[in-house]
UniProtKB/TrEMBL annotation:
Entries under PANTHER family matching the protein: ALLANTOINASE
NCBIfam families tied to this protein: allantoinase (TIGR03178)
Amidohydrolase-related domain segment(s): 51-392
Enzyme class label: hydrolase
Superkingdom of this protein's organism: Bacteria
Protein name: allantoinase
GO terms under cellular component: cytoplasm
GO biological process terms held by the UniProt record: allantoin catabolic process; purine nucleobase catabolic process
Length: 442
């Protein structure tokens, strides 16, 4: 393979944005230099003032295959990924069928990727009541960590765990140094919302911050007791920021993500019946979400992940507008970068912040920080070229997801992905797929 050099004025390195030439060889970044070596004989691409950044890593994606490929699937999800500059995904153990809670189910998952893996993909195993004996088998098979719910997951074949279940599993997971990802809501039997099912405020009140706060308090306590890497997924309650900050100050192995939709939308702007906005935990009020931005900016929240959770349009109850019956999940995989950048640039954040939140920190969660998430010598040449100043409007035609239901339709976003590279191969360029099936299992 011919060596490749990418020359640009805005190369996003660990030391910041600078002019540089990035030399790619055998799927890796072989060097980052100020000038092209005189003996270089490969191809040179000049990207001018576009940004070269490590590929986006999304460790919170529901691809739903096998078993629910009519919801999404590896082909459409990973096409959407490279179109959006995502070079590595980590697939959640649900909502596929079977769920990834046993070795046999994991084998089925791996087999389903054949011939339709267009970006790199790793996998989380599932933690459910009664599968403690499967943990080490799944680790040997290659899962990167485990995901658990503390409330109903939305599907009956992935039941939530209790504190008792966690006490059995966390010592095992801790022994292997892997992360436990937790959906933190401790629900009550009390009916907290009994009003109009089309009312967004009614839905919002049905999943209060207190559910999250109680769950996070419990996970901080167990994290400290077992010294188990604990990761809180899709934080939406700003009430929990202070306890999380205290836990981190104590040195606990605790990390936190939030999702793009909690940073881009606010409850005040969601109209009744707009079930495309339904997710769990729910999108909260502006004051709350402003606090999430502050926590992201100061590092209390580590990074941002989409929680891409698509479903067929009929399950989103678009006709009835019934928030209580609609599937809770937002489709946004392809839009991870421009959604976050559009909101971040308005708040004075920079491209280097984006690289940290979408590339470097997610790589650390997935145990990939020694090879992915940075433009540095010896790292995988998974890269994207994008224009932060160029804008576009989301249309159904522009989305590669299997279903086009998303609250981002018709939004004007900044940040156009021009090129995506996997292991130094160009796979996507200016709206066109250059090479498919170039993804690798992680």
């Amino acid at each position: 393979m011919t060596d490749l050099a990418i020359n640009g004025n805005k190369i996003c390195t660990p030391d910041g944005i600078r002019q540089a030439i990035v030399i790619l060889k055998d799927g890796l970044i072989s060097d980052v230099l100020s000038e092209l070596p005189v003996d270089f004989t490969g191809d040179v691409i000049d990207i001018g003032d576009s940004v070269l950044m490590p590929g986006v890593i999304d460790p919170h994606v529901h691809i739903n295959e096998p078993g629910r490929t009519d919801w999404e699937g590896f082909n459409t999800a990973t096409r959407a990924a490279i179109a959006g500059g995502l070079t590595t995904l980590v697939d959640m153990p649900l909502n596929s069928s079977p769920v990834t809670t046993t070795a046999a189910a994991f084998d089925e998952k791996l087999a389903a990727t054949a011939g339709q893996l267009h970006t790199n993909c790793g996998f989380w195993g599932g933690l459910v009541p009664g599968n403690t004996d499967d943990i080490e088998v799944l680790i040997r098979k290659g899962v990167l960590g485990f995901k658990a719910f503390l409330t109903h997951s939305g599907i009956d074949d992935f039941p939530n765990v209790t504190e008792s279940d966690l006490r059995k599993a966390m010592p095992i997971i801790a022994r292997h140094g892997l992360p436990l990802l937790v959906h933190c809501e401790l629900s009550t039997d009390e009916k907290l919302a009994t009003g109009d099912h089309q009312s967004y405020q009614n839905y919002l009140s049905s999943r209060p911050k207190e559910w999250e706060d109680k769950a996070i308090d419990m996970m901080i306590r167990l994290c400290e007791e077992y010294n188990c890497r604990t990761h809180i997924v899709h934080l939406s309650s700003a009430n929990s920021i202070e306890p999380i900050a205290r836990a981190k100050q104590k040195g606990l192995p605790l990390t936190v993500e939030t999702a793009q939709h909690y940073l881009f939308f606010t409850a005040e702007t969601i109209q009744d019946g707009q079930t495309q906005f339904k997710c769990a935990p729910p999108i909260r009020e502006k004051e709350n979400n402003d606090q999430l931005w502050a926590a992201l900016g100061n590092g209390i929240i580590d990074f941002v992940a989409t929680d891409h959770s698509p479903a067929p349009p009929d399950l989103k109850q678009l006709q009835s507008g019934d928030f209580m019956k609609a599937w809770g999940g937002i489709a946004s995989l392809q839009l991870a970068l421009p959604v976050l950048w559009t909101a971040a640039r308005q708040r004075g954040f920079t491209v280097t912040d984006i690289a940290r939140w979408l590339s470097e920190k997610p790589a650390q969660l997935a145990g990939l920080s020694n090879r992915k998430g940075r433009i540095a010598k010896g790292y995988d040449a998974d890269l994207i070229v994008w224009n932060p100043e160029e804008s576009f409007t989301i249309s159904e035609d522009s989305l590669q997801h299997k279903h086009k239901v998303t609250p981002y339709l018709n939004e004007k976003l900044y940040g156009v992905v021009e090129q995506t590279y996997l292991a130094d191969e160009l796979v996507f360029e200016n709206g066109n797929f250059v090479k498919l099936n170039a993804g690798r299992l992680i």
